[in-house]
Specification:
Order of helices and strands: EEEEEEHEEEHHHHHHHHHHH
Largest sheet: 6 strands, mixed
Strand content: 15-25%
Oligomer: single chain
Number of helices: 12
CATH superfamily of the largest domain: Nucleoside Triphosphate Pyrophosphohydrolase
CATH class of the largest domain: Alpha Beta
Radius of gyration: 25 Å
Number of strands: 9
Length: about 325
């Protein structure tokens, strides 16, 4: 679950209420109960189709409909028929989740109510009266809407940043890698991207005299507010491992970047299948040449073969494999036996 923003004591909710903007991942269960559904309709130029809204917050908004029968898909199907005059394929991209204290008087389901945003997957032409807003106009007219981060924040970038936050926070709490600059930089980058929560703002503006226990509390609070797992060193290393593996498989990082990181962070005492990455870095070391001192025969072929092995190991990491022993170099296997 990726929470883009969290606002405690949101002013539009009863006292003690909290509003989260949540990205829906394909493997996540559908939210429930859902009070309203909205349609994100875009054209090939990236403009957003909006309709007029009245009531306490007039202006432009996404086409919206209530969910009368506890079945949001029925409401979405009816809404697409109203907007386009026919059915249209849609996909749930996220929702605003309002949480209010139990027993609170509230116009929507309590203690949880969801307001879902569905993206229309084709570029059908609306038959309703409305307006197409380009990027600037959309930011001007829609940025105050509660669902706005679902549209304004790039989801892939947010996922990558949450990985960095997990790494920075987990290593901080390890009590060895106390990197204050990494804490503030990652929090600032998240805010600039459009993610937001109270603890994230405090981490971005850490004063030099803030004591470590206070930072520890902020780190844990920020993880809770953004819906991230409790930060630990193990999770930090796992997140960094997957990030580097992803880059190696995608070709945006050299294979040796993965093994060099493993050599620094995992080391020889990490007795698991991941030790193979450390031993593979040793193999790179054996292929290093020093001009004027020694040369390695068939070095290019050896490097290419080693790169291929590391790429295969990286792909195994992305497949969820935690034991990479089969990638252990032969000479290391012989020593271990």
């Amino acid at each position: 679950m990726l929470v883009l923003s969290c606002q405690s004591d949101a002013p539009w909710l009863p006292p003690g209420g909290r509003a989260d903007v949540v990205v829906h991942e394909p493997h996540d269960p559908a939210p429930g109960p859902v009070g309203l559904v909205r349609l994100l309709v875009t054209d090939p130029d990236g403009r957003v189709f909006c309709t007029p809204r009245t009531g306490d917050r007039p202006g432009w908004d996404l086409p919206t409909a209530p969910v009368p029968d506890s079945n949001p898909q029925t409401a979405v199907d009816q809404l697409t028929s109203d907007v386009f005059g026919q059915a249209a394929a849609t996909q749930l991209i996220g929702f605003v989740r309002n949480t209010v204290p139990a027993g609170t008087r509230y116009d929507w389901p309590a203690p949880l109510a969801h307001f879902a945003v569905y993206q229309v997957l084709d570029h059908a032409m609306p038959v309703l009266d409305g307006a197409w807003l380009d990027d600037d106009a959309a930011a001007e007219h829609l940025s105050g809407r509660h669902w706005w981060p679902l549209v304004a924040v790039d989801h892939d970038s947010a996922t990558a940043l949450t990985t960095e936050l997990n790494v920075a926070w987990g290593l901080w709490l390890d009590d060895v890698n106390r990197d204050r600059d990494r804490i503030t930089t990652s929090a600032t980058d998240a805010l600039v991207l459009g993610m937001d929560c109270a603890a994230l703002r405090e981490l971005a503006g850490l004063a030099p005299d803030v004591v470590w226990p206070d930072v520890d509390l902020l780190v844990r609070q920020a993880a809770t507010e953004l819906g991230l797992p409790a930060p630990t060193k193990e999770r930090a290393l796992g997140a960094k491992l997957r990030l580097l593996a992803m880059r190696v498989v995608a070709g945006t990082a050299e294979p040796r970047a993965l093994t060099a990181w493993a050599w620094r962070r995992i080391g020889y005492e990490h007795r698991s299948g991941l030790e193979a990455l450390v031993r593979l870095d040793d193999e790179y070391g054996l292929l290093d040449e020093v001009p004027g001192y020694w040369e390695v025969p068939n070095r290019s072929a050896g490097l290419a073969a080693l790169d291929d092995i590391v790429r295969a190991a990286a792909a195994a990491v992305l497949d969820g494999k935690h034991d990479l022993t089969r990638f252990m170099p032969n000479r290391s296997r012989e020593k271990s036996t």
